Structure formats: structure tokens, C-alpha cells
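ugh ok fine here u go
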Amino acid sequence: MSVSADPAPPTAAPMTSRAGGGRLAAVDALRLLAAAGVAAYHYLGTPTPHFWGTYDLTRTAPALHALSRYGWLGVEAFFLISGFAICMSCWGRTPAQFAVSRIARLFPLYWTVVLVIVVVAWIARLAGQRPGAPVDLRTTLGNLTMLPGPLGLRTTDGVAWTLWVEARFYLLMAVLLLIGLTYRRTIAFCLLWLTLAAIGRELHSSVLDEFLLTRYAGLFVAGMALYLMHRFGPNLLLWLLTGFAWCYTLTLLGDRVAAHAAPAARGGTPGWGICAAVLTVFLILLALSGPGPLGRLRWRVLAYAGALTYPFYLVHQSLGIPVVRGLLKAVPALGLVPAIALGLCFSLALSAALNHLVDRRAGAWLRRRLTSDIAVPGDPVGRRTPPPDPPVRQPSSRTGTVCQP
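structure:
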């Protein structure tokens, strides 16, 4: 659980890396689709009384429930897209510039949402209701670091565990940036990462699992390979890398399917084959959206939708679901599905407000200040530029930017 970024044999023909501008609107659309899947799973995908009490989704909305049971795959889709988008964000940047872009993008919205959740939980407690999130000061402070899991704390926002996965991926990319981000080094990095991740699985090492993200490494690597295709053009090596990463991913997907089998048991257990097919369709869509023909789309509405994905992802569960509960309690005749629709509308409206008031203003201010603070006069590190890309045959010239978490 997403959120703007910049991210052959010798021949006599001129060979350059792709350069240019323009947003990758299709990738933004995929991020919105992934967020919608996660929200559908949380709102409609489980028939247990965890959220809705006596309402039984297998009877209230059987068709919607049957589709939404697979919405958790949106998290896997986020990691796949993140491999593409973060590789794009890193290209042409120093480690310091990359760190500034991630901090300014992630933290202002995250801090705001955590504090709003805590305030809402305190109001619920004062009203004599059970708060939906931990509200003690120690837990709140730990969550503000975005590291509640490593600190042994409950997450204030239920989807925040995915941000810790993303943060570890950013650290791995920072190592690659320190070495120097080039076409060949990125391929070598991906191959080494997958190899070490497989060794970590074989050794049953919790330390390697934490550092190498062994469960999700294939998703990130597949996304990175697709970005290399987008930037430098497809070739056999990159397709083989993508295929290897995808075989690794689908093999380990069984663990995630098993983890989601119990809460969905009453409505039918999600099958590995269907989950693998759904995720593979998402891979194909990303391939069409980056290096493929959908990369030419330039719809501004999709770019805006991509900008709303990260705040929507943060608020839809911890703030949207309490709204639905309140509606069901205040107006029982409304019914579950209309109440859920209103809860989703509330989450989207709140996301738009957060994007305008926090991301565009506080995030932009923080980015300017941090950029100024790292540009210390006389510091050679601040002026270091990445090494140039190697010559790779290009059929055409195009890149873009994509909003990302």
C-alpha cells in the first residue's frame, strides 16, 4: 500500500538514451486502478463482520463481493508500478536529490493523515465509542516516523505497512545511485537482487527478508526492467529479465494468496491461478503504458487522478470506513452499498483537498527548503552529476513523468 517524479552490439547508427518530457498518463491511470482495487477489497472484499457488523456482503452485494475479493492484488500492482516509477525518478539525479523528492512527496501528506486519524480517534473516545486507531502519544510519535513496524508499534493507518516496504526499496535504489545509475549497472543490480533474494528465501533468513524484500523483489525488478525498455528500447535481455522476475513473483504469490484465503473463506477462497492471471494482466498493461503504445496518452485528467492516488490510499480505510459506519448507524435505511458509495466519495473529496492544501503547498515548500539546505557552498557531493548513459539503440525518443507514492 501509493503517489510526481521525473524517474547492444556496436553499430554505426547513432544511439542515444531517450529524453524528453510529458506525463505518462496511462501509468497514472494504472496507479488509480490499483488504489481502487485496494479500496474495493477493504470495503467490499471480505464478508467478515470486521468492518460492517451484521451486514453480510455475500448476500447484500454478491457480485461486487466476488470481484472485490481480488482487490488486494492492487498492493502488488503498486509495487510493480513503483519499480517503474522510482527508476524513472532516480535517473539523472544525485542520491541527495532523490532523497529530497521522496521526503517532500511522502511525509507532508502522511503526517497530516496520521494526525487527522488520531484526532478523529480521540473524538470517538470522548464520545464514548471505541477508537478505530491507537491514540496514545508513544504510538503516535512512532507512527510519525513512518517506521511503526520496526519500532514494534501498531500502525495508526492500516495501509501504512506498505510504505515501509517502499522505503526499503528506496534505500536499495539509493545504493544504486551511490554506485552510479547506468543502463548496465541497473541490469546487474536487478539480477544480483533477485539472486540474493532467492538465496535469502532458501536460507529462511529474516534479516535477508527484511533488507532484500524477498517476497516483493520480483515485482520491483519487473517494473524497473519495463522502465529500461521505455527509456532505451526493448531488447531480448530486458524481456528475459522481466520474464525471470515474473516467474519469481508468481511463484511466491502463493504465500499471499494463502494469507488472504481465511478472511475470504465464506465467500470462496481466491485461487492462485486467477490471482496470477489478474496480476499478469496488470504487468501487460504497464508494458503497454510505458514502452508500449499507451505511453503516448496525454490526458490531463489521468495525471490529476494519479496525483490523488497517494492521499486516497492513505485515507480510504482509516477515515473513509468510519464515515460509512457513521452513516449506517445514523441512517440504517440507507443500506450498505449506498453508504459505501458515499464513503468512497468522501475519501475522494478529502484526497482532493489534501492534494491541494498539503501536497502542492507544504510538499512544494519542503522540497524547496531541503533542496536549498543540501546545496552547501563548496560541497562537491552536492554538485556531483551521475555518469552518462551508455549508447543503446533507439527506435524513437520519448520519456515522461509519472505521479507516484
